[in-house]
Amino acid sequence: MPLSPPVSRSLRHTRAITVDAYARDDGLWDLDASIRDVKTRDIQLPSGDRSGGMPVHDLKLRVTIDRQLNIVDAEAASDAVPYPGFCETIGPAYKKLIGLSLMNHFRLHLKDRLSGVLGCTHLTELAQLLPTAALQAFADDEFDTRGGADANVNPASAERPFELDRCHALRSDGPAVAIYYPRWSIKAVSG
Known about the structure:
Helix content is 16%, strand content 26%.
């Protein structure tokens, strides 16, 4: 269902965030994330004027992960920043991501290592998207998301699908699980 029709309005700012996932030939994965902020009009920054349509931020973060979702390498680049000569010097700090697991309290460890003056607000915000982006990338490639469809052939080999009970639609006592993952469906407890 689409959003409701908007009132009369004019675009002033666009923030574009992307995360591209690449399976590497060496068995590792690269997650290339970017955040780009663009104003539609000319603006004055303390560092000088920025023409409309030119990015205020154009930041990139790459993490290399293994198949267990552990970060084995990280790098950051700042191609457009509001404070040239200062903002882009923080890139090397993102090596602090190496050794973290995207699935083991990643956002907590990220905050400990790179929040506030320890990092760039925008790069750290971008890094928070990496766990769910990695899961989406691994779905059907590294993780079986067929819901144990082969459980009837070999019931002992089927494992509980990772995605169950991680969102509203895929709660174990819900109708979607009853339809698409019947082996893992449980009856709702009525109170």
